[in-house]
């Protein structure tokens, strides 16, 4: 209720008109089937939910692999949605950003948060809170002259209300195969690992080919790979010699302890006796793997 009142005041002061004017010139919202923040396509149903919420607010949302003919002919008719994931160990945090055909940011939502433990429910609640930024925005597509479209440049408007939380009615759940996660699978305790089938990594001096934005890879890395740690928004990417992301480390509140997803299994990476170790469970059996990480 508090957040709703704040939005009513802001929109009555003209902020809604300014933001609305920015988005009225775009006919489509392009939703990627795979967001850069995630390892796989439609992970935790994030693409499905983002498209659904944009449609609820009256936008013509389309997937990036199902573009209309006029959008293919003129990409500047649409803006692309990106989901930024600022999640921590104890909370899921999401922001939706819209960029135009030139890659310029035209709109950014407030940060939506959730403390739900199950991934799908957490991102659903965080996105619902984030999309509150569109409340009161009476979107209506207004075609612009091509010359005006190319010359008109407006500064992005960011609406942010720190620590505010809004509850909205639950939206219908799409009938898509769920990726299950439980609170037990998300929580990790600082326990000393049991020595078992640890694999020794021998250095393999292969040069890093480039330092461009990493592209996630579903392939496992070789035992003798040197892994280069590249900072990310939530921790680090571990890159192999071909600059492929083989592991994404998520920071925790504890030093030298990271959460990870290894070959579809929840995992933890920690430092023991000066060496980095990957611990994960597969088919109920715990496995340890020594990593050669260079920060």
Present the secondary structure layout:
Blueprint: H1 2-12, H2 15-23, E1 28-31, H3 46-56, E2 61-63, H4 69-73, E3 78-85, E4 92-99, E5 105-108, E6 112-114, H5 119-130, H6 146-151, E7 157-158, H7 183-186, E8 215-216, E9 227-231, E10 235-239, E11 244-251, E12 257-262, E13 265-272, E14 275-282, E15 285-291, E16 293-294
Describe the structure in your own words:
The chain has seven helices and 16 strands. The protein is of the alpha/beta class. Strands 8, 9, 10, 11, 12, 13, 14, 15 and 16 form a nine-stranded mixed beta sheet that branches. Strands 1, 2, 3, 4, 5, 6 and 7 form a seven-stranded mixed beta sheet that branches. A hairpin with a 2-residue loop joins strand 12 (257-262) and strand 13. The chain is elongated, with a radius of gyration of 22 Å. It starts with a helix and ends with a strand. This is Secreted protein.
Keywords:
295 residues; alpha/beta; Rossmann fold; 2 domains; nine-stranded mixed beta sheet; seven-stranded mixed beta sheet; Secreted protein
